[in-house]
Amino acid sequence: MSVTQTPTNSPEIRRLDPVLEPGHTYASVTDKIAAVVLTRPLGIGWLAGFALCFSIVMLLTVAVAWLFTKGVGIWGINIPIGWGFAIVNFVWWIGIGHAGTLISAILFLLNQKWRTSINRFAEAMTLFAVACAGIFPLIHTGRPWMAYYMFPYPSTMGLWPQFRSPLIWDVFAVSTYGTVSLLFWYIGLLPDLATLRDRAKYKYQQVIFGILSMGWRNSARHWHRYQSAYLLLAGLATPLVLSVHTVVSFDFAIAIVPGWHTTIFPPYFVAGAIYSGFAMVITIAIPLRKAYGLEDFITMRHLDNMAKVMLATGLIVAYGYFIEFVLAYYSGNKFDVFLANQRLHGPYSHFYYALLLCNILTPQLLWMEKVRRSIPALFLLSLVINTGMWLERFVIVVISLTRDFMPSAWGRYSATFWDYATLLGTLGLFTMLLFLFVRGLPAIAIAEMRELVAHEGHSKKGHD
Amino acid sequence: MEHRSPIHGIMGEFETPEDLLAASRQARDAGYKHIDAYTPFPIEGLAAAIGFRWTFVPLITLSGGLLGGLGGFGLQYWCSAIAYPENIGGRSLNSWPAFIPVTFEMTVLFASLFAVVGMLALNKLPQPYHPVFNVERFAAQASTDRFFLCIEARDAKFDLVETARFLESVHATHVVEVRDED
User: CB within 10 Å: which end of chain A, N or C, has fewer?
Assistant: First the structure.
């Protein structure tokens, strides 16, 4: 992999769209990406979008403040449905985060060059999604000011957490995931922060990026250790990302509730997480490349590849749904069989059919190259899949809890205004953080793009 | 910084990574030991070319992972079997299979923290000041599209005139002194 090599010109590779449009130099990729942060004025579109998201975040703060005042009774939850929207939203958000780590770690280990221009904002998306996810278990505890009870600390009561409980595993898995994602993201940013520091036009930019970049000076020794650390982090993040949704699925699978107590949960939760995550990356990438003219960097190749990943993981998810039924009927356990029938014929069956439509049927359109190459179709599909994945968690949480073992203990669930306000609020928070991110930090990894320029062989060599 | 001379070294600028790589190898061959190269993106083989092969980052990461794993398991064992033993249906207090998820997460957490902090510490970052930034062309272009080689003054073979001549002979486009101002 010496820098002098040009990529092989086999016809198979040539047929594909490039991961970087030709004609770019080290300086042009640097300028283009850095300019979005350093010099581009705030447009009316950004300001309007930010204002809208910010007002939705205000709705979130009102919803949470009201929750803290009145308690979880303002939500639609009650016995037997103690979980409701909070857990649905938690699982949905944490799943969305998974694509970021998959792109940055797993595709890095697999040496997939097309990850380069999408990894940075996908990682940012991971962090923001984990932040949104983290809100829910916390506010769902009812007494969030005592949430620290979940951590092992030497209390005067002499109490320690119950480490045999998947809910405690969850605390460790999600907080580790958040921390490692942050580290990975920051380490990736370090050389780019130095680039911004060097190109900053104003004093305040120099100071901010100077502090954040820690005095990074692009030394070959530093790069050597940096690459070693980055590779190790990728290797660590890969099993981590698989473990996180596995542990989330244990929250359900370890319980004996019908519809939850199944071994298919861990793999199908992980596949579902990646499925929804890629859908969210597409939802973000399409407006991002359009708004900031980044079509040269986030090319049709990226969108096409992501669509293929969605199709593949979507099929795994479909297999998961199928196996749930097979296991229920094969086991002969009457509660499992009953639950499976509830999904098809119970009071919430319309959610289940909507889920099949969104997650299995509609995404089959992705088999067609025409659909994978149509930006509006892809954008629409990504929204459909995200809706479908939310419905999946709703089906899992609500149908199982409303009708478990004893008909006398059955119940019904419907969300209240505050449930919807909190869900919408986290969507606003997520989008607001993305708005801040694209203008505050480089949305594409600049140093990696320069590396790509060198590898793709259209460096400035021969220009002068 | 035990070595405080007004000259940090002499820096040559190159247009392409290939030129820099060749120059670095020649500098090593010429007997220079204290050299460093600066590039806007990592270049395969450059660290080896300036005589830097070994890094402790993997070992530090491993030790972090071991510490996290053993610590994580130890914490759970101590909590569940010693500090707060609970007899749940007569099950073993050291129910180790239930401790695996947290042990795994702690292994990853500590290994990652050690990898990042170790990498930064070995690189002596954060470092608010470094003399190479006194070179104007370096500050402007080292993180964009120019490649630099610095032969440092603490090198035994360093000589203002000779070293500058050497850098020119290996096709540096610009050769400048790096001054270390207080």
Answer: C
Pair (B147, B165) in one structural domain: yes
Smallest Cβ distance to B101: which of A158, A216, A247? A247
CA distance A332 to A192: 58
- Cβ-count burial of B149 within 10 angstroms (0-12 exposed, 13-18 middle, 19+ buried)? buried
For residues A239-264, average pLDDT: 93
d(CA B116, CA A183) in angstroms, rounded, equals 7
- No. of H helices and E strands in chain A? 18, 0
B15 and A CB contact within 8 Å: yes
3-state DSSP assignment of residue B154:
coil
Output the pTM of the full model: 0.92
Please list every residue in chain A whose beta carbon sits closer than 8 Å to the beta carbon of residue B104. 239, 243
Shortest CA distance from B148: residue in chain A: A219
Q: pLDDT tens digits, residue range B157-177?
A: 999 999 999 999 999 999 999
Residue B182: predicted pLDDT:
59
**pLDDT at position B51:** 87
| DSSP string covering A102-128 | IIIIIHHHTT-GGGHHHHHHHHHHHHH
Cα-only R_g, chain A: 23
Task: Give the residue among A130, A124, A90 at the shortest CA–CA distance from A104.
Answer: A124
Residue the block writes with tokens 């995550």: A277
Sheet holding B35-38, edge to edge: B35-38, B147-152, B7-14, B174-179
Q: Are A215 and B116 within 8 A, CB to CB?
A: no
Residue span of the structural domain in which B93 resides: 60-122
Q: Do B128 and A4 count as a contact with CB atoms less than 8 A apart?
A: no
B1 band by pLDDT with thresholds 50, 70 and 90 = very low
Q: Which of A161, A233, A243 sits opposite B112 (nearest CB)?
A: A233
* Domain shared by B30 and B76, yes or no: no
Same domain, B112 and B149: no
Contacts of B173 (CB under 8 A, 6+ apart): B13, B14, B15
B2 is a domain residue: no
What pLDDT is stored for residue B109 in this prediction? 97
CATH fold for domain A50-441 = Formate dehydrogenase/DMSO reductase fold (1.20.1630)
Which residues, at least 6 apart from A89, have a Cβ–Cβ distance to it below 8 Å? Answer: A132, A133, A136, A390, A422, A423, A426
Mutate to test the interface with B, among A1, A3, A156 (most CBs of B within 10 A): A3
Q: How confident is the model at residue A100, as a pLDDT?
A: 87
Helix (H, G, I), strand (E, B) or coil at B38: strand
What are the residue ranges spanned by the domains of chain A?
A: 50-441
pLDDT digits (tens, 9 = 90+) for A183-237: 999 999 999 999 999 999 899 999 999 999 999 999 999 999 999 999 999 999 9
With contacts defined as CB-CB under 8 Å, which chain B residues touch A219? 36-38, 123
Select the residue from A5, A164, A197, A212 to test the B interface by mutation, using most B Cβ atoms within 10 A: A164
The average pLDDT across A84-103 equals 92
Residue of B38, B99, B112, B130 to mutate when probing chain A, most A C-beta within 10 A: B112
Reply yes or no on whether the pLDDT at A304 is more than 70.
yes
Mean pLDDT, residues A71-96 taken together: 94
Q: What percent of chain B has pLDDT over 70?
A: 97
Find chain B residues with C-beta within 8 A of A215's C-beta: 125-130
